[in-house]
Amino acid sequence: SIDTACSSSLYAIHQASEALRHGDCSMAVAGGVNAVLLPTTTIAFCQAQMLSPDGKCKSFDARADGYARSEGAGMIVLKPLIQALKDNDPIYALVRGGALSNDGKTQGIAQPGYDAQVSLIDTAYRHAAIQPYQVQYIEAHGTGTKAGDR
């Protein structure tokens, strides 16, 4: 079990990818679950002004005022490409590389560090041995907050 807040699922996928890359396993299952079980968390997020008052997340928008909570779950199976081809598995994506970071000291525990994130992205490109123009898809983490969407 990995808990790194909003990045938990991607952290788990990175760890699984690294385990495969190092030969620690021949197949991995990774993903995440978010269940809104207790009102105390929602109350705390409201008090911290992290949630949008109208319940709508307006990511990357000048009107952004927080995010909307929801529940979900997702898991993926990871294998080395050679094995997936041999097993005739459907292949939806390739993990070329990645990187992990801890922002360290910022304005608050939920505040991302801009410079640390830029450095992390550069490191991920290096580990994947690709150039930014080669990226075909980006899944953004748009929290609907000025600090998170920067």
TrEMBL record:
Q: Which UniProt keywords are listed?
A: Phosphopantetheine, Phosphoprotein
- Supply one GO molecular-function term: fatty acid synthase activity
Tell me which SMART domains the record gives: PKS_KS
One biological process GO term for this chain? fatty acid biosynthetic process
Q: Which residues form the Ketosynthase family 3 (KS3) domain?
A: 1-150
Q: Which domain of life is it from?
A: Bacteria
Mind telling me which PANTHER family this protein's record contains?
A: FATTY ACID SYNTHASE, SI:DKEY-61P9.11
Q: What is this protein called?
A: Ketosynthase
